Amino acid sequence: MTSWLHKYGYPTLHCVLFCVVLAANIIGGSSHSGESICSSPPVSSCSECLRRGPQCAWCFEAGFLDGAEVGERCDLVGNLARRGCGLEFIEHPEVMVEVNATTSSTQVSPGEITLTLRPGAEASVIVAVQQLERYPVDLYYLVDVSASMQENLDQLKTVGVALSHRMREHSSDLRLGFGSFVDKPVSPYINVHPSKINNPCSDYEVKCRPAHGFHHVLSMTANMSEFTRIIKRQRISGNMDTPEGGLDAMLQATVCQGEVGWRGEAKRLLLLMTDQPSHLALDSRLAGIVTPHDGLCHLENNVYMESTTMDHPSLGLLAEKLLENHIYSLFAVEQLQYQWYEELVRLLPGSNLLFQAPKLIDVVVDAYKRLLSVVQVSVSVEDRAFSRFLVSVSPLCPEGSVSHDNRSCSNVQPNQTVYFNITIGLHSCPDDDDDVDDVVQVFVRPVGYNESTIIKIQTVIIKT
Ligand SMILES: *[C@@H]1O[C@H](CO)[C@@H](O)[C@H](O)[C@H]1NC(C)=O
Ligand SMILES: *[C@@H]1O[C@H](CO)[C@@H](O)[C@H](O)[C@H]1NC(C)=O
Ligand SMILES: *[C@@H]1O[C@H](CO)[C@@H](O)[C@H](O)[C@H]1NC(C)=O
Ligand SMILES: *[C@@H]1O[C@H](CO)[C@@H](O)[C@H](O)[C@H]1NC(C)=O
Ligand SMILES: *[C@@H]1O[C@H](CO)[C@@H](O)[C@H](O)[C@H]1NC(C)=O
Ligand SMILES: *[C@@H]1O[C@H](CO)[C@@H](O)[C@H](O)[C@H]1NC(C)=O
User: Fold this and answer.
1) Which CATH superfamily is domain 135-372 in?
2) What sequence ranges are listed for the domain PSI (predicted)?
């Protein structure tokens, strides 16, 4: 690959097409002479046939050798043809790769690829991800306003203006938004004694606000005085148990695109500030809440309405929504909780963990720079087809950059292009109830980018 890069430099779309076709790799369908290991001992299904070896082919023609044993459908291509299997049922092009040149974008190319695969074949496509020099940035502060967080809230009051000064070097413009959360406002998470519901802090003789699942408070704004004004108005709240409802709030902030005001062209950062671990899915059974989260936005007048009826989202669901909405999550946590969140961050693509230090601005700027220097892709296959396809990804990192995990390149500079070699193999035949005429889509999403590549896979197979 290195030599290919040297030879052609940065690829145009044509080159991408060219390379893609070059990389297409057929592992099935070649024909050898001699005794066939495909036909004896006889197989009973297409899948079994293909497992016999890459040279084995299956005849899908409905009336092939009328009344013959099903095992006879498995043979070398040449033998099947000689025995009367229509060529169109075995001699389809095993692999065909087409790049849709009308779908072009600035950062991720090509936009759309159509693959034609037959069982037993695999193909590789190259997806290029080019970073721009500067991005607009949307940063949403999601702040735990339970009683222990007063200090952090105070700290935020000065962040807006200073952060926007600092980010000027790195970003074309910055917008900030704000939302608050505590926990599900039901027992046993809060004290439901009437005197405590409205002022959960009455024991401490302080006035504080009722606990809430999530309030969206300020939509993305470039007006830093407005941000400061809103932060100054925030009052803390209180709850009973130590973990907080951060994941509920993160999910709403992620999927309520319109309310939050995420911009399509911005790098989107969601910063969770808390001094406690978060409740996970199934935790709310304790409060009798058993309905799983549906992954949708449930804000009414900026208040999360399903806090007391739906469980916390699972990490898988949250990860999926973050990815889909190209949002990076950052966790600013107290040192005591660092370890707990380390586990969580591993499960959320592209997310980042920070110490909740006095230098909040530095850590946000650093996190942003770090996120830009790591280019990572996430490849997902539609659920129903997941088991039939084998997908592997290998990054081809530009000069000066390295891959530590086979999924990403670190230390990427602005304007550099990262290539990902995505290999897709169709290793089994469709199940009887699969609709084989369906096109299966594979989504290649660079984490945090607003663009992606769709690979449409057409399988050439006709059911027996
Ligand atoms: C992509 O990966 C496949 C499978 O690992 C390999 O055969 C192929 O040579 C790679 N292509 C490039 C251009 O690196
Ligand atoms: C290419 O993509 C465009 C836009 O998504 C679509 O309208 C068009 O049908 C595609 N062409 C092919 C050949 O798939
Ligand atoms: C910014 O917000 C402040 C305080 O809310 C307000 O007085 C001012 O008019 C706003 N500026 C702009 C340009 O909207
Ligand atoms: C994605 O971001 C780029 C650069 O920031 C922008 O030009 C483009 O319009 C965005 N695309 C969408 C679909 O929002
Ligand atoms: C990356 O892939 C190579 C070859 O497939 C493998 O040997 C290596 O262990 C992988 N590294 C990691 C960190 O997964
Ligand atoms: C990045 O690319 C843009 C547009 O092609 C160019 O104007 C800019 O000078 C480049 N920056 C660097 C650091 O190479």
Assistant:
1) von Willebrand factor, type A domain (3.40.50.410)
2) 37-86
